[in-house]
Backbone:
C-alpha cells in the first residue's frame, strides 16, 4: 500500500482534531447561552473530522488502484500557479486586518483574476474584482449589519 496516498487525509485529520480541541477551549459567553459561541465552530470541526475519516476510508478502499493524484504537480507551470495562489492567500490574510476588507479583497481578487485570465482581459478582471468586493461589503456591512475591518 502506498503511504503517500494517506498524507493529505492524515493532515486534515490532525487539523480537525486540533481545531476541535481549540473550540472546546473557547471561553463561555457572559451573555445569553454560555456555549452558543461554540455551536458553529463545533459543526465545522466535527464535519471536518468526519470528512477526513471518510477520505481515509476511501483511500483504504482504493488501495489497489494506481495512485496518480500528485502527478499533476509534474506540470511546472501549474505548480507555480498553485504556489502563487497560496502566496496570494497568505498576503490576503496578512492585509485583511491592516487595510480592511474592501481594499484587500479588491487587491486579492484582481491578482487572482489576472493569474487566471491573463492580462488581455484586464478590464474585466478589475470590474469583477471591484463589483464582487463592493457587493460583498454592502451585503455584510449594510444588509446583515456585520462589522468588517
Residues:
Amino acid at each position: 500500500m502506498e503511504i503517500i496516498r494517506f498524507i493529505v487525509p492524515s493532515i486534515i485529520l490532525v487539523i480537525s482534531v486540533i481545531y476541535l480541541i481549540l473550540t472546546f477551549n473557547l471561553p463561555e459567553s457572559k451573555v445569553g447561552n454560555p456555549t452558543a459561541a461554540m455551536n458553529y465552530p463545533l459543526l465545522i470541526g466535527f464535519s471536518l473530522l468526519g470528512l477526513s475519516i471518510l477520505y481515509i476510508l476511501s483511500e483504504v478502499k482504493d488501495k489497489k488502484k494506481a495512485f496518480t493524484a500528485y502527478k499533476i504537480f509534474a506540470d511546472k507551470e501549474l505548480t507555480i500557479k498553485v504556489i502563487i495562489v497560496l502566496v496570494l492567500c497568505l498576503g490576503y490574510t496578512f492585509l485583511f486586518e491592516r487595510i480592511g476588507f474592501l481594499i484587500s479583497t479588491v487587491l486579492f481578487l484582481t491578482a487572482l483574476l489576472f493569474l487566471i485570465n491573463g492580462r488581455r482581459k484586464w478590464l474585466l478582471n478589475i470590474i469583477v474584482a471591484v463589483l464582487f468586493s463592493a457587493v460583498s461589503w454592502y451585503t455584510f456591512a449594510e444588509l446583515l449589519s456585520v462589522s468588517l475591518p
